[in-house]
């Protein structure tokens, strides 16, 4: 790096400084909402509502977390969301790999037509009502399958993984494997997947976030409260805690309003915590997987 720095002109240094400042600004803009939610969840709700919270907590308050964690439905939601995420991501990865691998092979006849069909579904779909009718007619509503089967393959993720296989797996490996007598299944399991850890980690993150934050589909297909996901349960808790006596006759209305403010930010942190914990472990694969698997040409 020192040798390269000697060849940097003044304009190069100014440009690099501008890039660093711009990235720092973007980082602050992206990270501050999360930081604000964290400090607001531990702050006095009165100070939060008055706009006195900026960079550090004011008036430490644990009541929001206590109220949320004491609710048994929170743990039910965590268990359900964890189960849906594990089952859903497993299905997503298996189906995406099984679709992307053959579509990445140049010796597959009609692969371009198949990709066009898959790409068509990315821009055009039957809509919400036909999808609901299909799920209902198959008796999948009020079950985990209603949340994982309709979204078994994400077209964008399929394209990214297919591009990764095309650009990162040398054709010489396929030829050598065929000469050794390996079948396509053996090549996929023993050659392709061991070399595809970056893209698998990226897909794992994408699908995990999608299932963990599952809200709309869960709201449509799950009417049984015992099966509802964490976002749905947190929404219900926030709505219940925010309910006020519209006539103004409730003497505890102000207290409940302050409690609702604490519960709101505590719920945001508790819902985001699993993904925040998981991300650092796969971050080292993330950039490589996204860049190599990006759509090119």
Question: What does it look like?
Answer:
- The chain is mainly α.
- The protein has a single domain (71-292), classed as MetI-like (MetI-like fold, Orthogonal Bundle), CATH 1.10.3720.
- Helix 2 packs antiparallel against helix 15 (253-292).
- The longest helix has 40 residues, at 253-292.
- It has 15 helices and no strands.
- Helix content is 73%, strand content 0%.
- It is globular, with a radius of gyration of 25 Å.
- It has helices at residues 2-6, 10-41, 45-49, 63-69, 72-104, 111-123, 128-137, 145-148, 155-168, 171-179, 184-192, 197-212, 216-221, 230-242, 253-292.
Compute the number of strand runs. 0
Count of DSSP-assigned helices: 15
Mean pLDDT reading: 80
Helix-strand category? mainly alpha
CATH topology: MetI-like fold
Give the topology.
Blueprint: H1 2-6, H2 10-41, H3 45-49, H4 63-69, H5 72-104, H6 111-123, H7 128-137, H8 145-148, H9 155-168, H10 171-179, H11 184-192, H12 197-212, H13 216-221, H14 230-242, H15 253-292
């Amino acid at each position: 790096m020192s040798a390269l720095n000697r060849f940097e002109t003044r304009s190069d240094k100014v440009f690099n400084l501008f890039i660093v400042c711009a990235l720092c600004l973007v980082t602050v803009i992206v990270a501050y909402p999360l930081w604000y939610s964290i400090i607001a969840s531990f702050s006095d709700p009165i100070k939060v509502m008055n706009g006195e919270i900026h960079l550090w907590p004011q008036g430490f308050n644990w009541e929001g977390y206590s109220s949320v964690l004491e609710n048994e439905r929170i743990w039910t939601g965590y268990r359900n969301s964890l189960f849906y995420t594990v089952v859903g991501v497993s299905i997503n990865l298996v189906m995406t790999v099984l679709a992307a691998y053959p579509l990445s092979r140049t010796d597959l006849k009609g692969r371009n037509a198949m990709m066009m069909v898959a790409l068509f579904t990315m821009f055009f779909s039957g809509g919400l009502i036909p999808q609901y009718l299909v799920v209902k007619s198959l008796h999948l509503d009020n079950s985990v399958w209603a949340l994982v089967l309709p979204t078994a393959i994400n077209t964008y993720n399929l394209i990214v993984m297919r591009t990764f296989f095309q650009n990162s797996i040398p054709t010489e490996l396929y030829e050598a494997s065929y000469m050794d007598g390996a079948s396509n299944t053996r090549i996929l399991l023993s050659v392709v997947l061991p070399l595809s850890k970056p893209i698998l980690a990226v897909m794992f993150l994408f699908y995990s976030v999608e299932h963990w934050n599952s809200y709309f589909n869960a709201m449509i297909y799950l009417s049984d409260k015992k099966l509802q996901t964490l976002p749905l349960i947190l929404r219900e808790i926030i709505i219940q805690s925010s309910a006020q006596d519209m006539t103004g006759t409730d003497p505890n209305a102000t207290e409940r309003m302050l409690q609702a403010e604490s519960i709101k930010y505590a719920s945001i942190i508790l819902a985001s915590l699993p993904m925040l914990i998981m991300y650092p472990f796969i971050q080292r694969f993330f950039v490589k997987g996204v860049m190599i698997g990006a759509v090119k040409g």
